[in-house]
Specification:
4-stranded mixed beta sheet, 7 helices, 41% helix, 25% strand, binds zinc ion
Length: 244
């Protein structure tokens, strides 16, 4: 096994592990440690390089997908990070004698856990309670925040503010029904505002065009000129938003 580097015409360097095998063809594999190339024992490096150059787009796409799906799972404990409107909040778990709503105090989300005492137990045993409370809080913020944004952009579009509900869909960020109801994934509240604004404008534009035609995208652009960047950012952020 040898560590080699594939250098693309644009200067991008992709390190890979080269494993020579008794085989006739070149095999590519994306693993946790990156690109692994299985090559015939006798192939010259320049020949191998030519084949890899041809497969460069495939390799990059796969490597990017792998990187994106490698999000560590959320751990609901004291000190954990929570994304909120593109900022990082820290969970602060506080033992309380009575039930209390979570509170945002500067960059900390205080979550109060009713417990008989024993501080040490808080961190291990109450994960499910912390998760439930934090997600409930995120959903409440989502409802408030999205409603305000929808009002602003509906006015800009010159339509009445449509009714909003939150969705829990795994694969969609928003939808607009033929009756004109807008559903937005509550997980978007974790994203920076420009992404939320884009998704809202996208769904509002469907009030005018119930399709993804050129007219539709022109409407999106009028409402939200920088939509292409936001769409790209949303795609890149998607695995992170699905951590909760
Ligand atoms: Zn759409």
């Amino acid at each position: 096994m040898a560590l080699e580097t594939l250098i693309l015409p644009d200067g991008t360097q992709i390190p890979y592990q080269l494993e020579r095998r008794a085989r006739r063809t070149i095999g590519l594999k994306i693993t946790e440690s990156g690109l692994v190339v299985h090559a015939p024992r006798r192939i010259f490096l320049f020949e191998l390089n030519r084949v890899l150059q041809e497969k460069a787009q495939w390799i990059i796409t796969k490597l990017e997908a792998r990187m994106q799906s490698a999000q560590p799972p959320m751990v609901w404990t004291h000190g954990a990070d929570l994304h909120y409107l593109g900022n990082l909040l820290t969970l602060e778990i506080i033992a309380a004698s009575s039930a209390k709503k979570p509170q945002l105090v500067q960059e900390k989300l205080h979550i109060h856990i009713k417990t008989a005492g024993l501080e040490a137990n808080i961190h291990a045993e109450f994960e499910a309670v912390i998760e439930r409370k934090a997600i409930q809080w995120l959903k409440q913020q989502a409802q408030l925040d999205f409603s305000r944004r929808i009002q602003v952009f509906a006015a800009k579009l010159g339509v009445r503010t449509p009714p909003l509900s939150l969705s829990n869909a795994r694969a969609r960020w928003g939808s607009c029904s033929s009756r004109g109801d807008i559903r937005l994934n509550w997980r978007l509240i974790q994203a920076p505002p420009h992404i939320i604004n884009y998704v809202i404008c996208h769904e509002l534009a469907h009030l005018k065009h119930m399709n993804h035609s050129g007219h539709f995208w022109a409407q999106v652009e009028t409402l939200y000129p920088d939509y292409k960047r936001a769409e790209k950012d949303l795609k890149a952020l998607s695995p992170l938003l699905h951590r909760v």
